[in-house]
Amino acid sequence: MQALLKHLVDITCQRDHTLLDTSIVSALRELVGASQVRVHELFRYRDELFVRPRAWVRDDQVVSQEEGPDNHGEPITNYPSLVECIKQRKNHTEESGPGGEHVLWLPVWLNDKVNTCLEVINPVPYSGDTLRMIEGILCVYRNYQNILDYSERDSLTGLLNRKTFDEKFSRLLAANVPEATPQDQEERRLQCSPEIGQWLAVVDIDHFKRVNDQFGHLYGDEVLILVANLLRQSFRSQDRVFRFGGEEFVVLLRSTTLDDARKIFDRFRANVEQHEFPQVGRVTVSVGFASISTESPVMILGHADQALYYAKANGRNRVCFYDELVSSGELHSEVSNVTVEFF
Ligand SMILES: Nc1nc2c(ncn2[C@@H]2O[C@H](COP(=O)(O)OP(=O)(O)OP(=O)(O)O)[C@@H](O)[C@H]2O)c(=O)[nH]1
């Protein structure tokens, strides 16, 4: 009882999804005596459902995906018991693992949808009491996920909000510590090297004031929601999309080459251009992006912002890359005065 209360206190004092995931892995491992507990996220990619672990036990420690390299996940069809459990809208299902271990799958149901599921592996079968305790802990976890979601997201578009960006971006920068000297970085910038990198883009709707003025704020809001949907559809689940404020969005694009980053941002720009917005018709966006280097968050955002202002001043409906504008002499490498205050 004491151990259960301690874990419930631990779960409910978290202010962040990653810490919440790791605390539920710790709780179930200790309370059930499980040999492995994994929190998986379920996500859709090109019309197929995938499963990817977000937190699990490794070498007796609880670790999370944020600490490791990118994992693109596996199709959910590799887990037929889980597929069947979700199809039948069940709260759990048990199967035997390859070594005879007992594997328990627990989808986390939220408004008829499953975005997260737990996998608990135990050498011995689960008793009725153990199952009831696991389901009780799962309910606390689900309710708490709901509360965190509410505080992390923008209420109009459902995208992650500015506060969450500040936290996630600092964490991404802390994890992204390449041993590159300033000369290396300058060289890379000049060569536009094909290395895998992380990229930050600022996206801004063109002439959005005109939409509000001509059609009213309700239509303006609808455009914001539809652009947010296009953002969600255009990027992979391990990328992160934020509403930064007003008609401005920020995208963190993970682990891709410069060429691909350019294509991906341009594909999104084209998706918006081709979309028929009810009543409003055509809408376009401008995008400025920069590489996520070892520079400070203010500098990186400032670079993307400068590229965005360049795109706005030079025709709109285009994607501009900061480093390229600097190497071609179209931009100077100081942080622009127009950069808004970050952090
Ligand atoms: N409907 C709606 N409008 C918003 C919201 N937040 C900001 N806006 C409006 O967004 C508009 C932004 O206009 P500007 O910053 O002048 O930029 P713009 O008209 O998009 O022009 P460019 O960025 O130069 O292409 C303003 O009219 C704001 O009132 C919102 O949540 N809903």
Automatic annotation (TrEMBL):
Cite the CDD domains for this sequence: GGDEF (cd01949)
Judged by the first EC level, this protein's enzyme class is transferase
The record's section on Gene3D superfamilies has: 3.30.70.270
* Enzyme Commission code: 2.7.7.65
| Known catalytic reactions | 2 GTP = 3',3'-c-di-GMP + 2 diphosphate
* Keyword terms, alphabetized: Nucleotidyltransferase, Transferase
The keyword Nucleotidyltransferase belongs to this UniProt entry's keyword annotation: yes
What superkingdom heads the lineage?
Answer: Bacteria
Q: Recall the GO molecular function terms of this protein's record.
A: diguanylate cyclase activity
Query: Which stretches make up the GGDEF domain?
Result: 196-324
Instruction: Give the PANTHER family listed for this entry.
Output: DIGUANYLATE CYCLASE DGCM-RELATED, REGULATORY COMPONENTS OF SENSORY TRANSDUCTION SYSTEM
State what protein this is by name: diguanylate cyclase
**Organism source for this protein?**
Noviherbaspirillum album
